[in-house]
Amino acid sequence: IAMRILRVSEMRAEAVVSDPAQIESLVAEVEQVRETDDARNFETYVDAKERLVRIGAPAAPALIARLLDENHDKVRARVQITLVEMGPEAVLPLLAALPDSRTLLRQNACVLLGQIGDRRAVAALKARLEDAKEMAEVKSAAGEALRKITGGDPAALPAAVLCFHRLAEGYHRMDPEVVRRVFAAERTV
Question: What are phi and psi of 35, to 5 degrees?
Fold first, then answer.
């Protein structure tokens, strides 16, 4: 246990690197599932997971791509745990995965957003719920995620468009210059 604590403290002292090759190497270590789950295998996984959590948002897309592995539940579970531990850092990459054409990815993104519990996901999850073409399993995952995040019935929430509007207003109130900069950039394009 003492060695593990020392290793964690060493990792905390290391600079956070977001090199794509290093991220892929760490994701491969998270994915590594051996026939026998020995202590060394678990320690390698935990070290890689902790480093990926520290990297945060730059590591999330590589992990999200692994959510499509239907054949290896243990790998998908390890990836899910890592993304949930990233917390708010994983929210925007997970939101970007919601319009994906693959049902499993959309479903997993909804589940993870619910576990993270970040209110920024409410509008996008409500949009999944309102989409008439959306698969039932994704709607179910979106509804459950909304229940976890809001603590209430998703049907009682306003329409997705209103949720998006409120989210935008919140960002504007935090920094009114954001809206001016965004629109100024669009005019120059």
Answer: -60, -45
* pLDDT tens per residue across span 13-71: 455 566 888 888 888 888 886 555 667 778 888 889 999 999 999 999 999 999 988 88
pTM check: above 0.85: no
Q: Are the C-beta atoms of 63 and 76 separated by less than 8 Å?
A: no
Residue 49 burial (10 A CB sphere; 0-12, 13-18, 19+): buried
Give me the sign of the Cα torsion angle 174, 143, 67, 45.
positive
Distance separating alpha carbons of residues 62 and 17, to the nearest angstrom? 15
Q: What is the DSSP letter of 159?
A: P
Query: In terms of Cα–Cα distance, which of 129, 87, 132 is closest to 107?
Result: 129
